[in-house]
TrEMBL record:
The keyword DNA-binding does not apply. SUPFAM superfamilies: Cysteine alpha-hairpin motif (SSF47072). It comes from Bubo bubo. Keywords: Disulfide bond, Mitochondrion. Residues 61-84 are annotated as: Disordered. This is Coiled-coil-helix-coiled-coil-helix domain-containing protein 7. InterPro entries: COX23, Cys_alpha_HP_mot_SF. Gene3D superfamilies: CytochromE C oxidase copper chaperone (1.10.287.1130). The lineage of its organism: Eukaryota, Metazoa, Chordata, Craniata, Vertebrata.
Amino acid sequence: MSRHAQQLRDHDINPCVAETDASRRCMDDNNYNKDMCTAYFMKYKSCRKFWHDIMMQRKRNGVKPEMPSAEERRKMLETMGKPY
């Protein structure tokens, strides 16, 4: 597995691993018919947007690291509910 592929699977780097996996699984199950997986794609897109907005806010506030760790994200989602 390439270094880039490993980073995409790292929960500390990619907050949307579960959504990525669900989209890919849907595509596999539906013979790559994108129309059947629109809901999964929208959920992935919402996830990416949500965490990108969090990352940009932390960057503006000078918080390091800009992307919260997997544990921090889990706690954030527990308190607010999953917004996507």
